[in-house]
Design brief:
The protein has 440 residues and is an alpha+beta fold. It is built from 14 helices and 17 strands. Strands 10-11-1-12-13-14-15-16-17 form a 9-stranded mixed sheet.
Amino acid sequence: MIESHATERPADIAGVLATFRAELDAAGVKVRAPDIVAAAADQLPLTGISDLTLGEGFTAALGEQVALGTKQVLRGDYAPGLATLEDVLVRVRANPARVVADTSSAEWLTKAYAAIAFAQLRSQRLDAASETIAEQIRSFPDRPIGRIVGPQVATLADQVRKRLDAAPHGTLQLTVSQPDVQIFLDESARSTGTLSSPAIPGTYRLLLLRQAVSRRYVVRVAAEKTTELAIDWDADGAFTVTGDAVGFVGLPDGPDRIAAAAARYARGGRQHDVIVASIVERAGRRYLAGAIFEKKTGVLPRHKVIAIGPGDTACARALAQHLLRGSDSPCLLEVVVPALDSLDGGNPERRGSRALPAVVLTAGLLGVAAGGVMIAIDEDDTGEKLRYRDTGPTGIGIAIGGAVVAGIGGYWFYRAGKRTSTPVAAVTGDMAYIGWAGQF
């Protein structure tokens, strides 16, 4: 669950969300910031600097740690050396914005990959060593490992590069809404604003950097397929993680942009749906709004609001259960937000299915056509033949019946596309009302 706030996070948000969060938590939804980051880091635009206490000497210390780890593995201390070097990679990947600012980082990172591959080879782990080298090639394609740690790794690196070059590639196409955003893949500078490039299949660490703001992502590229990403930088830049909450803060024109961003986050996940909760204040009343976006597809199947006030505990539980299971409650109000409506994808809660009406309409039209054919082949009794086709009366009956069925199907088809009546609380950017919308 993530939050969304147009300005700052309300002071009473913890109390307002307490029952709602507890209901989600009981159902297994991640509601605490550390749990959300641990479970869904590959879906969310996390900051490029996880540890804000890092000083200017951070990357220099990492370079020294690489030198130490390399010495360890070269003298045969493979396990301690691997621990030293792999810790470097963990810290790099948690703080890539610091790393890319160091112009020497490509050199000491390449040395780290080479030393890790050396230790893996000497430990009889050929597959692991090959994958480590492939990671270095994906990260720094123009910087060969060479003989940094000796001929054995150099030979393997040449073999891996030839294999990767000969294998089918994918394509990565990236567009960022702000043209001056710097684009890095695996801590290597690639472009600004847009990127369209062939890519070796695999998982990439994407870093976007603009002035003092950075966001990191996980991108997967498959062979012979194009991975397309369109990043709304303002929305992702407003996405923050604190010790208390995860979500959007300070995006005043946000309903449509937040909905689109949340749908994108959900599409990028294989395990977790994304639930968005926010407090909306309109005309002196406060509402708790909730929406759920499905994993893999980003479709928005359900979204409702409840009024915040005395006795709202039961309604908070009802809102959580509605998002999770689609259960209904009198205190649930319909969300009227154009951006959400555009994402509901024919939500069965909001529109009737047209599949069965279409079948009835088609059957009726076929009946009319069949009746017409029978009328056309009807023959009059002229006395010239022993037998005549007397299909006219039957054809007329079939045609009339088909017309009736087609009329019913057509009306049903028309009505199925309409929304049913429902209680409404409008929470658009410039207006609000409570009432009833639908057909009467």
